[in-house]
Please model this.
Amino acid sequence: MRRIAVLAIVAALIGSSPLAAQSRWAKAFGTPFWDEGMALALKADGTILVTAETDTRGASTGDACYMGLSSTGQILQRQIVSVNGKWISPRGLAATADGGAVIVGHTGTYNPSQDRSKRDARIIRLDQTGAIRWQAGYGRASDDESLASVVETADGGFAMCGYVTKGNSENSDLWVLRTNKNGKALWQHTYGGPREDFSGTIVATEDGGFAVCAKLELDAMGNWDGWVLRLDAEGETVWQMRYGGAGTEWFTDIITQPDGGFLLVGPTDAGAGSYDAWVVKIDSSGKFLWQKMYGTTKNERFYSIAPVASGGTIACGWTEASGAGEDDAWLARLDASGKILWQKTYGGSSEDRAYAVRELSDGSLVTIGTTESFGAGESDAWVLRVGSSGGIDSSCGTLVAPSRASTRNGTAKATSTSYAAANPSVPKAATSQKQKSFKLVATSICQSPS
Model:
């Protein structure tokens, strides 16, 4: 009897744990208008954090939506941050050590007479409940500033990357900003050439520095290379390298590797289709270790990549060649040398994409993106939790399909660059956004039995 009682208690405890049921599901979240999934992070307790840009007012002016989801996809927290007369785009997200979160992005307005948008960078610090703890804006009236990615630093502050565009110029520079825990700037630098340069993602390194991936414009013909900068703790350049061929490549995400190197993803036009997904492994000095292209005769892209506890990585993006509709969200499990272990697409009759992916503690995977095939409006943010091999449930029907992208060795070359860092001294700007209640429609597309 004692053994039965103990087993019953253990079973009850396991059943109540956040990931015990290993629930797999696909859900859309949105308004009757348009909504776009943006970023994804995981809290230490297993809560899934997501951001989206959402048109809660039906006026084509986006608000920032923040949600905390349970392992079964139930909404635990939700907040809308709104700015009167402006849109606000929550492009980067990180969970913080104290159980809260930080969002980075920009607010913006559009001037139709000049056919020009004006953006200011924005940082929003949230507490454990999702309430705003503080917010900070950075920008000049004459310039454009935006932030795309953020990491928490060991001292509780933040490092983030984005871009700065001066005046009416179409040329932009990569921008890295380091703040304390209250959003006060400690240092900031811009890096770039004479044309357009945009940031991808920033990661912290073991020595207290950072690595940033970016998009570097080479010429007036619109050819781009992927660009990586290795920075010390003060933002000074340790090394910088560009990676590319005769056409166009760039990086959208970077992660650290156990050997001190880095893994990067982005698109390349050197493959079989209009664009292929591109994965690059470099060592701690920026030298190529290997590169792979994944694609068909159509258009494929990896947008984000994440480590997997058992080894290798999981990449997400979209493909035109497989699945049920136009673009379909695409997940590919890769081993340590870039070989595809499995790949699947997810989508309906219209356009569906995946922008970020993470592994949960039980080996299942969660991804966020945008769907036009499902949900309440023109487009919805959608979040999928899939098994370790990419499956959801037979009830999903054609939502989940095999992908047939093939692998080829990449052909890009690495070239050292020497663009000098500048101190832009972008000042703090006034902030006026507010939280508000809103009605969000959650649509369950399919799910496994719990």
About this structure: Residues 1-20 have pLDDT under 50 and may be disordered. Residues 2-16 form the longest helix (15 residues). The longest strand covers residues 101-111. The CA atoms of residues 317 and 346 lie 10 Å apart.
